[in-house]
Amino acid sequence: MPQPLRPTLSELFAVHPRDGGWAGFLLPQLDTAKPLLWVQDRMAILESGRIHPPGLPSQNLIHVEARDARDALWAMEEGVRCAALSAVIGEIWGDPRALDFIATRRLAVASERSQVPCWLVRLGGTANLSGARMRWRIASAPSLLNDLDLRAPGLPAWDAELFRARGMPPDRWTIACEAGAFHLVAASGDRTLGEVERLRA
Amino acid sequence: MPHLAIERWAKSSDYAPDAPVVLTVEGTHGLILHAVTKAAVERGARAGARLTDARALDPALVAEPADLAEDAALIERLAKWAGRWSPLVEVDGDGLRLDITGVAHLFGGERGLMRDVQRSFARVGLTVRMAIAPTAAAAWALARFSKTLIPTLSRGREGEGLLAQLSPLHVSALRLDADTVRTLERLGLKTIGALIDLPRVALARRFRGAEDVVDALDRALGRKPEPLTAARADPPPRATLRMEEPATHPEAGPQALERLIPDLVGQLQKRRLGARRLSLAGFRVDGSVATATVATAIASREPKHLQRLLADKATALDPGFGFDAFALTAEWVEDLNAAQESLAEEPSGERELARLIDRLTVKLGRRAVRRPQAEERHLPERASGWSPAVSSLRGAKATKQSKGTSLDCFPRIKSGVAMTAVRPQRLLDRPEAIDVIYATPEGMPRRFMWRRAVHDIARVEGPERIAPEWWRQPSSARLRDYYRVEDASGRRYWIYREGLIGDGRGGLPNWFIHGLFG
Q1: What is the pTM of this model?
Q2: Exposure check for chain A: N or C terminus, fewer CB within 10 A?
Q3: How far is A121 from chain B (nearest CA, A)?
Q4: ipTM score here?
């Protein structure tokens, strides 16, 4: 898994707006020692729900409910300048006018200056011009086999596509996260199928 | 104020003015009447009687619970308001005590003052009984026990006038406790006059300690001083600025702020305080005032920070015909000792964070910037409460404790259990109804439709049953069976079935989607 060398702005596109998979991909990468700033604009809350602290790895966070994308971007920029935060996550719905190259570029520069990683999450948006250093496209993938209950969902897996990155070739992986580390999952289908076959035999 | 409780209630209620309503408080043996309306008095209800007795006289009485805390709060507010007549105001039980030494002539003598007080209280719909007397205890007695509506004044110093006025009053006007009054009555000493005539030594020997009759007499007659202890708040730190001529340009506010903040910070530093809430008032030429208020998450007297918080709001102040003065007041202050964060020039996290919260809150509002606050509740949407980030840094603990005590008699959930259960990362604010195909009556869901998209369920885990909070919700609330489902493309959701078939709380169970897993 390629990681940026220094904290910077990364952009994350949810392939489907009503798929929460990107959160599972993003959360293991965060440092939970310091508080987190999580900004959601109102449309994002309406469409795909408000964050639910009991499901998150750390309760130490500040949640901002922004009226629109402009307020959300302003709150993110204020947060990125505050070195006491571990990361800033901003969810923005659609393609608002306020979210242009200049806005993302400002976030990227501020993030690199203060060493606070910033994640811009785009729900239902298109990948237009952006100043983000890494751009991901995340979708949920069928989960791994649950050893205890064959019918139950197992360890979550994701299809992660790095489609634009500075100094790195674009690529895509199917990955799962176990004990804080990402692992590659063999192309979906054969491994799961294989195990089911073996178990049946 | 003899009718405060009922008058306050009458203002905020929607009963007809002639309804026989009584306000009740919990007594040792059932409900006791606390205050009664005029109509209820005519039907035989009396304050202090038991509700059952009053109901026996007239079963048509309407009983409402009295709100003693709210009454007390009103008296506190009235005490502040009464500061218009005298600088020394004290709350005394259900009344107010004003020291009017050297004040009365401002209102045209003592009579003028009394008329003014009566008129002002009547304007806000409150009846007052008052008395002016040379001693506080005598005023208390006269205001409550005098037969005339407004007792005539007793100008003579501790002299005959006061004695003559007090003599016919009942002994309970001396503020003695009920037992002492009963003893005195049994001895045939019904009025203060009868007490005064007795030899002091005999009285002092008979009544000692808490029931000191001689002491009470002395206080009433002014033989012993009883000073007022009025709660007098320190004036809040405040900086003012007068303009040479009215300023109408929009930069007037920020420019004034630049000169006011160093002044205010100096005052805060001297008194070792930090501001939690600041208000900038611009006084317009035409006599109106424009104000802007900001709050901070931790007490601060950092000029740069305060300036940054207020700058936007100061620009937005509408000058109208022009400001001729500004005042910056620290309305809410907390102790803040001089602090050095560390030897190195390294800013500590907490203060940085508090500043960030302040900036976000000032621009986006208190309700938009929040921190999670776990609550001991069954329902998932209630278990993750939120509290404004500005107040939660210190206030969180206090509110939690007070909540805990009020719920002690009800089942409590060990928070550890809730934490280990699998919870989604996102929760819809309001669960959305979905159409589900499932194996009835209590089987696994197979397929569901949410927002016009069909999801085939590939894997499912559950149910996790969450029972309704019977001590809070109505008895018709249904239980929820939560399932963690994964559709064919791998998206994971949290859905639930509300109720069971045949649980007697409604028809067929409904399905809802509540959360999204990452």
Answers
A1: 0.61
A2: C
A3: 13
A4: 0.89
